[in-house]
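Re-run requested by the PI after the first attempt was lost when the workstation crashed. Everything re-entered from the original request form. Ligand of interest: zinc ion.
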Amino acid sequence: MLGLETSCDETSAAVVADGRRVYSSVISSQFEIHRAHGGIVPELAARSHITAIIPVVERALHESGFERDDLDAIAVTQGPGLAGSLVVGMNVAKAMAYALTRPLVAVNHLEAHIYANWLTDSKVIPPEPEFPVLCLLVSGGHTELILMAGHGRFQHLGRTLDDAAGEAFDKGARLLALGFPGGPAIQERAGAGNAAAFELPRAWLSGTYDFSFSGLKTALLRLTEPMRLASDENPVDVPARREASRPFREHRLPRFATDAPIADLAAAFQEAICEPLAVKTAQAASAFNARTVVLAGGVAANQNLRDRLLQEVAIECGPEVRVSFPAFAYCTDNAAMVAGAASWIIRRGDLAGWEADIFPRLPLL
Ligand code: KG4
Ligand code: ZN
């Protein structure tokens, strides 16, 4: 299976067999293009996919050791994501499927993140996660608690009422002047900090499996405002090349004294995001008799979240419930998860026709 992923700011192609074994996974990041803007600029993302995608596909095929003719099907992310970005992947996937006379599989990006837990780089294939699976999906755009009774059988238990967990990390990182993307930056600074040094609120929303992170972001703003330096704002490096046709909006971050307790704030903020996620996921796993708890999405790369989830699941469910994380490379956006999910989708007989379109707001179910 060849998979293509262009839903956001990574151009990626991968070759995966049987939904499990990854033969190649190539990711071309647009990080440098968007960094100075402090977030993703959709038009720049779409245009970079156009220039990157063919070399990325060529490399993924070459590294896999397979030829085009060896492919059984072509899979592509259909949504959710940025329209202009999704269109690039969809058109290339259709063209390849048409030229090679192979079936086209349209993959939901959220389902792909979940199926990243079935992937392995190794020749020795480990056992599959056992159903029922309880999944915490935490990315830049989504925070959802999902019960998976079997392949393709998803039930929503809860979601964020406002910001996604990754979005909270990104906004928190801006408030702490740690840059973009925020998750890895916060995790790194938090490593040298003490999470107990500051008290930040948790929205428990008890009696539900929902989450909320907007109050936490406001609390961090209130806490850090008095620490900001008077000479207010600090422009981030401006890209060397910029298009004359586009007005450039300078992205600004607050400025702090060198002895400001940024590491402690980062640690307290990270813990205030991870604790409710871990506790409520473990409670849901226990309530719905899950056999496996899986973490998915970009925020699944967060080590504190992994550690907290292991702890809470052990407390709530005991040692017989397994906790599974995708390999770090398959947490953030990648095409291996798309090619992987496509095998399970094909098994349920779900092929896309030539009329297949993209769906920027496609839900999981
Ligand atoms: O899944 P993903 O690559 O893209 C979406 O589908 O949204 O997730 C990106 C998000 C970003 O918000 C990023 O800050 C967050 O995942 N992220 C992390 C870490 N690595 C990426 N958040 C916390 N800790 C990390 N180590
Ligand atoms: Zn994603």
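Saved to the shared folder this time. DSSP finds ten helices and twelve strands in the chain.
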